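## retry 2 of 3
previous attempt timed out at serialization; input unchanged, resubmitting
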Amino acid sequence: MKFFNGLLFGIIVGVAAFWFLQDKARQHPEAEQRFKDSADKAGAAASEAAHHLSDALKAKFETLDLRSDQITAEMAKDGKIVRRKAQDVTSTLEIKPK
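## retry succeeded, writing output
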């Protein structure tokens, strides 16, 4: 019962604080404009970061030979997928007959 009372009290205080802050923001339009400007800047920065992350992942997949057309071609040719590092290791190993 204490948990429920605390939860209810917290929700009421949170709603009152939200209403108070929204009411004060509407009374000061320059503060609201600054908020919108900073929100737009944050959105642009997040979009740019996502674009850079996408480019980095594409470059990493390219270096690892993880393109879908390459994997499809390997599956059609051999029926299995062997990555470049595994091919490099097998080409450097020499198996000598006994």
